[in-house]
Amino acid sequence: MILISHRGNISGKNVSLENSPNYIKDAIHLGYDVEIDVWYNNGFWLGHDKPLYPIGISFLMNEKLWCHAKNIEALLMMKMEDNIHYFWHQEDDITLTSKGYIWAYPGKQPIKNSIAVIPELYKDNLGVCKGVCSDYIINYKK
Description:
- This protein is of the alpha/beta class.
- It has helices spanning 21-29, 57-60, 72-79, and strands at residues 2-6, 33-40, 44-46, 53-55, 65-69, 86-87, 94-96, 102-104, 114-117, 131-134.
- The chain has one domain (2-140).
- The longest helix is centred in the first third of the chain and has 9 residues, at 21-29.
- The radius of gyration is 14 Å and the shape is globular.
């Protein structure tokens, strides 16, 4: 199963650190993939509700990252690069990532071979999932 840290969180939300480059690197170092929130405004930025941390495009070219475009400009700019795994969603039941994964909104499981997002909110059935994205991803490590 693919284990994806939500914004770098591993054992609970840490709003003051999530989406920060070093926090993301720490989660990757521990062996997790990481979902990050990406903005574009005269360059790439990380941050959930607004752009907070400037980054270079090379930061996004990491096979362990799942880049959630937070504005249309970010989606269009990431789409121009083959080495960035990206997706766009808001409250859609599912969306497809640029690598063809089904990214499922919380509470929409079970969906075969999908990524279950924050499954603990709805006690989602993970039996047929390909992966999990959670703020508590350490709880899914076996």
